[in-house]
TrEMBL record:
Residues 23-116 form the HPt domain. SMART domains: HPT. CDD domains: HPT. It comes from Opitutus terrae (strain DSM 11246 / JCM 15787 / PB90-1). This is Hpt protein.
Length: 119
């Protein structure tokens, strides 16, 4: 997973092709939604971990996995997928280090997406 780019350019190109000729307005909109929503999901992960709510944790990880794949944040997607599966199969006992890794990867992805969509 470490050899994946922070942002998959093919995913970005796929988003651009959904609304060609719009000067990346659609791309900026999708990225903006991702950058607004993902911190909320990260908070959900933290809160559900603290409360021991496995289903809520698993759903939040699943949500981050899907939205990250949509914008090409493949490292974020990979960590979220691991969190989703681990929490569903083994509970929350050993997810804290992965959650810290997820936050770090999201920070990297956010920086790359902001740079990519800057006008």
């Amino acid at each position: 997973m470490a050899d994946l780019p922070v942002i998959d350019q093919q995913s970005i190109q796929n988003l651009r092709e959904l609304n060609p000729g719009d000067n990346d307005e659609f791309l900026r909109e999708i990225v903006g939604i991702y950058l607004e929503d993902t911190p909320l999901r990260l908070t959900e992960l933290e809160q559900s971990l603290a409360a021991g709510e496995v289903p809520k944790f698993t759903r939040a990880a699943h949500s981050i996995k899907g939205s990250s794949a949509n914008v090409g944040a493949m490292l974020v997607r990979g960590v979220a997928e691991t969190l989703e599966h681990q929490s569903a199969k083994e509970g929350l006992d050993h997810v804290a280090p992965l959650l810290a890794n997820l936050k770090a990867e999201f920070a990297r992805a956010r920086e790359a997406l902001v740079a990519l969509t800057a006008r």
